[in-house]
């Protein structure tokens, strides 16, 4: 199944908060005001697991085949499969660019990467699924173009990332300090339900 390219608001209304599909600053302002709509009383277990899986897939803009591949990698890794899965998705280059506020949404960040605007350790990387590692330095090919748009993130939002700006040279660079913790994930999701969904499907 190909990547979803339809209306985003439709998916946000159905699956509730998807921070990767809305402007990050707007999401942070309305985070406290959001109310979770309870499921129907007679809700099947399959539907609950399916919605959690769809929430994960649409937020990060993945195809079904990509998500299955990440599940295989997470299942073979040490530690909790759900947490490893979230770490793999959060360390994707397009998501790192989004979390550094170089783009307002994950689809926008993916477009920047595809158009060869992003540099990793001084080299152009045009693969959105590139897995970033600790100590990787993220910059843009044209710093002045993104200098005014990029805002320094609050420490509590992204403890695994850091961003520094040089106002005289009008340049900035982001750095991956460590692997993200579960508490640093913006998306509100029960990852164990996604693991249960694929344990029956695969």
Automatic annotation (TrEMBL):
Signal peptide: none annotated. One of its GO terms (molecular function) is rRNA binding. It comes from the Eukaryota. Gene3D superfamilies: Ribosomal Protein S4 Delta 41, Chain A, domain 1, RNA-binding S4 domain. GO terms for cellular component: chloroplast; small ribosomal subunit. One of its GO terms (biological process) is translation. Residues 91-151 form the RNA-binding S4 domain. Part of the 30S ribosomal subunit. Contacts protein S5. The interaction surface between S4 and S5 is involved in control of translational fidelity. One of the primary rRNA binding proteins, it binds directly to 16S rRNA where it nucleates assembly of the body of the 30S subunit. With S5 and S12 plays an important role in translational accuracy. Belongs to the universal ribosomal protein uS4 family. This is Small ribosomal subunit protein uS4c.
């Amino acid at each position: 199944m190909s990547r979803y390219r339809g209306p985003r608001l439709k998916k946000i209304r159905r699956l509730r908060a998807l921070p990767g599909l809305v402007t990050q600053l707007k999401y942070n302002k309305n985070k406290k005001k959001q109310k979770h709509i309870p499921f129907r009383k007679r809700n099947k277990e399959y539907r609950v697991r399916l919605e959690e899986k769809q929430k994960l897939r649409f937020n990060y803009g993945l195809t079904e085949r990509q998500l299955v591949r990440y599940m295989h990698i997470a299942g073979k890794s040490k530690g909790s499969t759900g947490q490893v899965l979230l770490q793999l998705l959060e360390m994707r280059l397009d998501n790192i660019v989004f979390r550094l506020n170089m783009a307002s949404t994950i689809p926008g960040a993916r477009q920047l990467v595809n158009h060869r605007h992003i540099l990793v350790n001084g080299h152009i990387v045009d693969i959105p699924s590139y897995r970033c590692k600790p100590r990787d330095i993220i910059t843009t090919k044209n710093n002045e173009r993104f200098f005014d748009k990029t805002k320094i993130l609050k420490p509590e939002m992204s403890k695994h990332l850091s961003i520094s700006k040089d106002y005289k040279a009008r340049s900035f660079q982001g750095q991956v300090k460590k692997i993200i913790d579960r508490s640093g994930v913006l998306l509100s999701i029960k990852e164990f339900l996604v693991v249960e969904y694929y344990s029956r499907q695969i």
